[in-house]
Every structure is written in C-alpha cells, then in structure tokens.
Write a structure and sequence with these properties.
The protein is α+β, with helices and mostly antiparallel strands. The protein contains eight helices and eleven strands. The chain is rod-shaped, with a radius of gyration of 45 Å.
C-alpha cells in the first residue's frame, strides 16, 4: 500500500469520526437551545394568559387550554413534547406544551399552552444531510489537494527511487539523486549517497580480493600437483599410495573450488561480453551425450525433449549452466532414478527424482550449501548457475513437486 493511500485512509477515518461526533454534539446543543427558547416563549405566553384572566378578559390565544380546578396541588410546571392531531393535515404533529396550576383572584386554574415545532427527527436528518455533503466535499477536496501536493512533493523521491532500482554494484555508473526542498528527503539523499559509495568500495575490494586470491592460488596448486605427480612415480607402500591419492583428490577439489570462485567473481562483475546467436539445443545435446555414460553408471533413466532453440547468449556460460544442472541431477538422483529435460523457445526444465531438501529452499542457491556432508562437490554449482542466469536475465526458479526436484529457466526475456 502506498504511503499516500495509507495516510489518506487514516485521514478519512479520523475525519469521519470527527464529523459524526460533531453531528451528534451539534444536534444535542441545538436541541437544548431550541427547547430552552420554546420554554421561554411558552412561559411568556402563560404569563400573558394569566394576566388576561386576572384582568377578567376573554382569553383568545391559540393552542391555549384553561381549566378551573378545585384543588391547587403543589406541583412543578410540566414542560414536555407531545403529539397533537392536526385535522387539516390529518396527521399528528410535534408540539411542546407547558402545563402549570396558578391561583388567580382566589381561584385555581390549570393553564396549558402549546406551540408547534419541527420534530427532532427532522432536525437530525437535516443536520445529517448537511454533514454528509460536507463529508463528501472534504473527502473530494482532500483527495485533490493530496494528489496535487503529493505529486509535487513526492516527485523527487519517486524519481530517485526509480534510479536506485536500476543501481548495481557491478557498474561504475554513479547515481545522481535529485534534490528536494523537503528536509527529510534531502537527509535521505545524503545517507543514500554515503551508503552507495561505501557499498561500491567494499564490493570492488571484495571482488579484487577474490580474483587476486584465486589467481595467486593457481601457482602453488600447480606446483603441489606437479610435486605429487613426481612423488607418485616412486615406489611406495600401499598405505602411502592411498594417502598420496587422497592428497591428489583434495588438491583437485581445491582447484575446482578455486576456478569456481574465480568464475563467480567474473560473473558478478559481468566480465563476459561474448554474447552471440547461439544454438543452445546443440549445446544441451552435446552435454547429454557426455553425461550418458555417467548416468548409466547410476542407472539413471534420462528422458529428453529437445526442440531447436537459438538465443543471444554466451555459449561458454550456457554450456557451464547446463553442465552444472546436469551434474546436479547426477549427484542427487538416487540409483535407478528418473530424470527429465525439456527445452523449447520458452525455456528449459530439469527434473529429477530425489528426497526433499533438508534445508529451506531460499538457501538452495547459496554458496557451499550442501544437502549432506558426504557430497564431494564444490557446493558452488547452483550459485554459478543462478549467477549465469542473472547475467542473461533468465529467471531461474526451483520447486519440489510429486517427489521431484524441478529447476525452470525462462527464456522469455531473451528470445
């Protein structure tokens, strides 16, 4: 929900509550004031009636009733509203009446005076209609004012947000944030500029360290491999030979990790400009042939539906991508399991049997994430696959359905 929408909703809620409270408050104030005014008028009229009686004149006031009473009860005047039938309109109308007993010329009189008034229900409906129109006017006016003001006030923020969405540490392009006359936005711009500079420096430092470390490791790895090969040519006991082979295996794994980290560093810096029209179906077909013997050793049944697909991509990276996902099938499909590959113009899907993950799916593409400690891979294959997809702008998604691991790569943005 947008900030403007959220604040507008709160504004409407508060305005509605205030208007409703004001409506009833105004109604009760008006009701009391009108009732007091009517009572004063009735008391004045009652006084005039008593004066006429005292002077022995004939009382001709409308809506006045005079009764003589034999007993003068000690009672307070009665002031109330009532309904009186109107023969002209053939319905009952709202009246206020004042009834009191007074002694005039040694006689007790019960004097009742009344006056018509607009019913409180009509008062409430009228006030409610006025407030409804007012509420609509406030809502419409507030919406228009918020729209035009926010459009101007929030324009720099929204433009800066659009620029930040396209910001990447992999490029040296700086983001020039638009200044604003709002202090909070200016303060935010200053903080963002500092964070971007600091983050880019740290990112490039980390990239340089990774590349330098990988390059520096290549030489000692090559030397150690050469020394181990020379050592293996000398006669030795079986136990020593086993230890030597274990050292070779560990060194080979270290070499693979080193090459994988170097590849990741290059991918994250987007150092692969060799984009060209590539027949990715041929690449997949070649890899399927290469992996056929490997799958046969584990009796993995592979079904492939390969349709002709040509994309603008890096042939080298595409081959690494497909190879890593095929290798993932080989490592994680149980013996005698089933795997399936489908490729067409919309994308490619890799499926293989296997138990569900023993860690969250969100961690699947993290570096060195393994389903079990006995896995002898580098733990970087899926991280590299994801980064290759990022370079080509191919969405890569994972799901687990009906006992199968499914990797889907969409080519829709690059066909």
């Amino acid at each position: 929900m947008r900030l403007l929408t959220k604040t507008s909703i709160h504004y409407l809620w508060v305005s509605g509550i205030v208007l409703i409270c004001t409506l009833f408050l105004l109604f009760f104030i008006l009701k009391n004031n009108i009732a007091d005014e009517i009572r004063e008028q009735l008391e004045l009229q009652s006084e005039l009636v008593m004066y006429e009686i005292k002077e022995g004149k004939h009382v001709e006031f409308p809506l006045v009733k005079i009764d003589t009473v034999s007993i003068h009860p000690a009672a307070e005047p009665v002031f109330k509203d009532t309904l009186i039938f109107d023969p002209l309109q053939q319905k009952k109308e709202d009246y206020y009446l004042l009834r009191q007993v007074k002694t005039i010329n040694n006689k007790a009189y019960q004097i009742t005076v009344a006056t018509i008034y607009i019913g409180w229900q009509e008062y409430l409906e009228t006030i409610g209609l006025v407030f409804l129109v007012l509420a609509i006017a406030i809502t419409a006016g507030g919406a228009l004012v918020n729209y035009f003001i926010s459009k101007k006030v929030w324009a720099p923020f929204l433009m800066n947000l659009a620029k930040l969405k396209h910001f990447s540490f992999r490029y040296d392009d700086s983001v020039e944030l638009i200044s604003s006359d709002v202090n909070e936005f200016e303060e935010l711009n200053g903080v963002l500029n500092q964070l971007m500079i600091q983050a880019k420096n740290e990112y490039h430092s980390l990239q340089e360290f990774t590349e330098n470390a990988s390059h520096e490791l290549q030489t000692p790895i090559s030397i150690i491999r050469s020394q181990l090969e020379k050592l293996s040519q000398h006669p030795m006991e079986q136990q020593s030979a086993d230890l030597l082979q274990s050292a070779k295996d560990t060194l080979n794994r270290l070499s693979k990790v080193n090459r994988a980290l170097l590849l990741l560093a290059k991918l994250e810096r987007d150092n692969f400009p060799d984009l060209q029209i590539t027949n990715v179906s041929d690449i997949l077909e070649d890899l399927r042939t290469e992996f056929s013997d490997i799958f046969a050793e584990k009796e993995i049944k592979l079904s492939a539906q390969i349709f002709p697909v040509k994309l603008v991509c890096s042939p080298h990276l595409t081959r690494i991508l497909f190879s890593n996902l095929l290798s993932n099938i080989n490592h994680h499909t149980p013996t005698g399991g089933y795997a399936e590959i489908t490729i067409d113009n919309t994308g490619i899907v890799f499926k293989n049997d296997g138990p569900p993950l023993n860690f969250p799916e969100t961690a699947l593409f993290q570096r060195f994430k393994k389903s079990n400690d006995s896995y002898k891979g580098t733990g970087l294959g899926l991280s590299i696959a994801r980064q290759i997809c990022v370079v080509h702008n191919w969405p890569l998604n994972y799901s687990y359905e009906h006992g199968q691991h499914i990797f889907r790569i969409s080519f829709c943005s690059n066909t």
